[in-house]
Amino acid sequence: MMLDKKDIKILNELKKNGRETTKNIAKKVNLPRATVHDRIQRMVERGIIKQFTVKTDYKKIDLPTTVFVFLSITPNNVTHQDLAKKISKLPGVYEVYMVTGEYDLLVKVRGESIESIGDIVIDKLRQLEGVGKSFTSACFRTIKEEI
Q1: pLDDT tens, residue by residue, 58-117
Q2: Cα 74 from chain centroid (whole Å)
Q3: Cα(120)–Cα(124) distance, rounded to whole angstroms?
């Protein structure tokens, strides 16, 4: 599923503004509108573009605090994959990654305060069967974040 330079330019424009019209994207990337439309459709059909979404300003919706929680998994009847899926469904959890190193999972959690996130980590995450030790790191400021 190779992308050429034209596809990458179109993707970059969609990342900047997913609501941009094909006409405006065509102008910016110097391609005919129909070509841009067809290329976007092909990328959707091939699964390169999974969905069109919004980028939220979390401060404006009272979720200004972000932490990253590293979790190790204890060997028992729960698989890494099943535990990761269970964690991904918890309120306040925004991203879950299976990682290498000392910890097995990296979880991004958002909340209205460090205390509210503490409730999620202590009362929800750490209580799940299969969760071993954890390490939580608060985020001071987000410099770059993609959706």
Answers
A1: 999 999 999 999 999 997 788 899 999 999 999 999 999 999 999 999 999 999 999 999
A2: 25
A3: 5
| DSSP secondary structure letter of residue 121 | I
- Report helix angle 5-16 to 33-45, nearest 10: 90
Residue written as token pair 């958002």: 110
Q: 3-state DSSP call for residue 123?
A: helix
> Edge-to-edge strand order for the sheet containing 131-138?
93-98, 105-111, 65-73, 131-138
Residue 17 lies in a domain: yes
User: What does pTM read for this prediction?
Assistant: 0.84
Q: What is the CA radius of gyration of the chain?
A: 20
Do 93 and 134 reside in the same domain of the chain? yes
> Hey, how many other C-beta atoms are within 10 angstroms of the C-beta on 134?
16
Asked if the structure places residue 109 within a domain, the reply is yes
Q: What is the DSSP letter of 93?
A: E
d(CA 51, CA 68): 25
Distance, in Å, from the CA atom of 100 to the CA atom of 106, rounded to the nearest integer, reads: 10
